[in-house]
Write a structure and sequence with these properties.
Length: 105
């Protein structure tokens, strides 16, 4: 089991407010080993994960949809405690945002 495995609620995004983050469903990331997915606003993405040697950092590329259009990007997350993480999400040729997550059971 990896340190990030499980469901993580998006608690804050620099570029988008709570109403947008939770527009379609509660904004979140889900990690399962070396893959995962996320949802925020009208954006969905499948994650390809690469963990740092210590397991407390993960870099990712992603591909998905935004209101029916193909989108992709990259990002990273760093554990700040056992159940919190911070990082950055980037949309290829588009927006980017700092992000905070909290693990939920």
């Amino acid at each position: 089991m990896k340190a990030f495995d499980g469901y993580w609620k998006i608690t804050w995004m620099q570029e988008w407010d709570r109403d947008f983050v939770d527009l379609v469903e509660p904004g979140h990331f889900r990690f399962e080993g070396d893959i995962g997915n996320f949802v925020f606003g009208a954006v969905t993405g499948q994650l390809d994960l690469r963990y740092g040697a210590e397991g407390d950092h993960v870099a990712f590329s992603w591909a998905g949809m935004d209101e029916g259009d193909d989108v992709s990007g990259r990002g990273w997350l760093q554990l700040t405690a056992a159940d919190t993480a911070e990082g950055r999400l980037l949309i290829h040729l588009g927006d980017e945002s700092d992000i905070r997550l909290e693990r939920r059971v």
